[in-house]
Amino acid sequence: MPSQKNIKILRPTTYTTEMGDEICKVITSTTDGLRQLCTKRTHWPYKSTIKSWRKIHPEFQKQYSSAKQAQLQMLVDEAIKIMGHADGAYILTKTGKRVINRKFIERAKLLAETQDWLMTKIGNELLSKWLMRNE
Question: Over the stretch 121-130, which tens digit does the pLDDT of each residue have?
């Protein structure tokens, strides 16, 4: 009898509208990347399969692009929220003096820079695809 470690999870390879709808619905509701989403959802295909579905099925490509645009907006909204969120920026010392919380500032800066990078990456990908479709 095979051990738990030796059991391989079979993932779908055939495109269905239902699976495409589910993938796009989830993408619009999270900032997680496709690799993370596929790892969390073992009933989904692998990322590479989804990539090939986008090439083969134009309706799925269109739906996927819209989902990624919604995800990009979510990243923008989250970045704006982070930049405007000042709770924790200051701490009180034992003597009651208010000082800047450098760890908070560094973390907020890192989050904003990471999201800026992600928005640029995703935004450029969406823009180039849009330009290719509309040339």
Answer: 766 666 566 5
Of 93, 11, 3, nearest to 53 (Cα)? 11
Would you say the C-alpha torsion 46, 27, 116, 130 has a positive or negative sign?
A: positive
Distance, CA of 13 to CA of 19 (rounded, Å) = 11
Residue 92 to residue 101: CA distance in whole angstroms: 9
Q: Coil, helix or strand for 47?
A: helix
Q: How many CB atoms lie within 10 A of CB 109?
A: 12
- Nearest-angstrom CA–CA distance, 118 and 107: 16
Angle of the 58-84 helix axis to the 47-56 helix axis, nearest 10: 120
Domain ranges of the chain: 10-133
Residue 91 has φ and ψ, to the nearest 5°, of -130, 160
In the block, residue with structure tokens 């919604």: 70
Tell me the torsion sign for CA atoms 29, 71, 111, 88: negative
Structure confidence by residue, pLDDT tens digits, 34-54: 999 999 999 999 999 999 999
| CATH classification code of 10-133 | 1.10.10.60
